[in-house]
């Protein structure tokens, strides 16, 4: 693994230009238009990428086009930040096509989640750029975006200050430690399936000394078990300083009797690691999602209420 020193993007200011790209799957055109309109009404200028209107099966255009679209947004001096249209599938196919030196030379806010995890991991480790695990244009802004999600997004990408405690939405239960304890280190992680898919490749996630944040959607408990076991067999869980698991969206509904619950799987797979484990934090595929800056320092401490971001993710 080629790990570069950390690099912070400049914060987004009022009137900033956001490049919108589709590095994975194609977006619903109505949701795309609604999401772009939402961002424009919020004061951002929007520059749609070539891939926003592309469709090639389950991909938003050929691999070379999607890679070029992403790189063009980083290289364009008129673009202040980049936000992905949606996830789906396809970013793993781009990893060996990207110029990570170009990305490092043009640091910008980069936002997405789900399948975008592969880009977060590769850009973070190969370019050193702090990126943002947060909402996307069609998937979130193109629907009824909760105030919680919008507030965390704005705070993360526009304020040159640490986010502090990542609290759940007001009506949701608080996140809970299934293993108490204290941990500190840079944030890393994203979608569990994507992180498992990096294992054994040159883009394999590095978890050593880091707080590993994991999220998933629509996976039955036994598949969560299998994915966590895969990370464990690769030593990734053991190397982490601490672990955070999200509210697993639509996972229990995939269970068929006989089954364990997600909570039981997490307790059994993560409970014996001898490190802090926090579960049920809202940052993944739920409508209410906090934006997490990947690469910045954070702590896990029960007395502080959970996950605390202790370092600013952007520069002034």
What percentage of amino acids are in beta strands?
Answer: 15-25%
Which sequence of strands runs across the widest sheet? 6-14-13-8-9-10-11-7
Instruction: Name the average pLDDT.
Output: 96
Q: What is the 3D form?
A: globular
CATH architecture call of the largest domain: 3-Layer(bba) Sandwich
CATH homology-level superfamily of the largest domain: LD-carboxypeptidase A C-terminal domain-like
Enzyme class: hydrolase
Pfam families: Peptidase_S66 (PF02016), Peptidase_S66C (PF17676)
Protein name: Putative murein peptide carboxypeptidase
InterPro entries: Carboxypeptidase_A_C_sf (IPR027461), Class_I_gatase-like (IPR029062), LdcA_N (IPR027478), Peptidase_S66_N (IPR040449), Peptidase_S66C (IPR040921), S66_fam (IPR003507)
Describe this structure as you would to a colleague.
- This protein has 316 residues and is α/β, with parallel strands linked by helices.
- It has 2 domains: 17-145, Murein tetrapeptidase LD-carboxypeptidase, N-terminal domain (Rossmann fold), CATH 3.40.50.10740; 164-309, LD-carboxypeptidase A C-terminal domain-like (Glucose Oxidase, domain 1, 3-Layer(bba) Sandwich), CATH 3.50.30.60.
- Helices cover 29% and strands 20% of the residues.
- The chain contains 10 helices and 14 strands.
- The chain has helices spanning 29-41, 63-75, 100-105, 117-126, 137-141, 147-158, 192-198, 221-233, 236-239, 262-270; strands spanning 17-21, 45-48, 81-84, 109-112, 131-133, 164-165, 176-179, 183-191, 211-215, 242-246, 277-281, 292-294, 297-301, 306-309.
- The strands form 2 sheets. The protein has an 8-stranded mixed sheet with strand order 6-14-13-8-9-10-11-7. A 6-stranded mixed sheet has the order 2-1-3-4-5-12, with helices on both faces.
- The longest helix is centred in the N-terminal third of the chain and has 13 residues, at 29-41.
- It starts with 16 loop residues before the first strand and ends in a 7-residue tail after the last strand.
- The mean pLDDT is 96.
């Amino acid at each position: 693994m080629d790990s570069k020193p950390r690099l912070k993007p400049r914060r987004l200011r009022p009137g900033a230009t956001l490049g919108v790209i589709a590095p994975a799957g194609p977006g619903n055109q109505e949701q795309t238009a609604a999401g772009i309109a939402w961002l424009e009404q919020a004061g951002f200028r929007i520059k749609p990428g070539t891939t926003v209107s592309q469709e090639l099966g389950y991909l938003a255009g050929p691999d070379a086009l999607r890679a070029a679209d992403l790189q063009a947004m980083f290289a364009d001096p008129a673009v202040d930040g980049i936000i992905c249209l949606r996830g789906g599938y396809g970013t793993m196919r781009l990893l060996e096509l990207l110029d990570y030196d170009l990305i490092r030379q043009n640091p910008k806010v980069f936002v997405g989640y789900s399948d975008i995890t592969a880009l977060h991991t590769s850009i973070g480790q190969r370019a050193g750029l702090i990126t943002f695990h947060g909402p996307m244009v069609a998937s979130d802004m193109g629907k009824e975006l909760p105030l919680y999600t919008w507030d965390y997004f704005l705070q993360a990408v526009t304020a040159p200050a640490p986010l502090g405690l990542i609290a759940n939405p007001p009506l949701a239960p608080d996140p809970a430690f299934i293993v108490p304890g204290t941990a500190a280190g840079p944030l890393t992680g994203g979608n569990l399936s994507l992180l498992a898919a990096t294992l054994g490749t040159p883009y394999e996630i590095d978890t050593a000394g880091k707080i590993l944040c994991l999220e998933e959607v629509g996976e039955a408990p036994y598949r969560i078990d299998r994915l966590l076991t895969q990370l464990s067999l690769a030593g990734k869980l053991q190397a982490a300083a601490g672990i955070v698991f999200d509210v697993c969206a639509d996972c229990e509904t995939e269970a068929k009797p006989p089954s364990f619950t997600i909570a039981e799987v997490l307790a059994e797979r993560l409970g014996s690691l001898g490190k802090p484990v926090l579960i049920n934090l809202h940052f993944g595929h739920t409508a209410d999602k906090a934006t997490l800056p990947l690469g910045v320092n954070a702590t896990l401490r029960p007395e502080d209420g959970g996950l605390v971001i202790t370092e600013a993710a952007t520069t002034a």
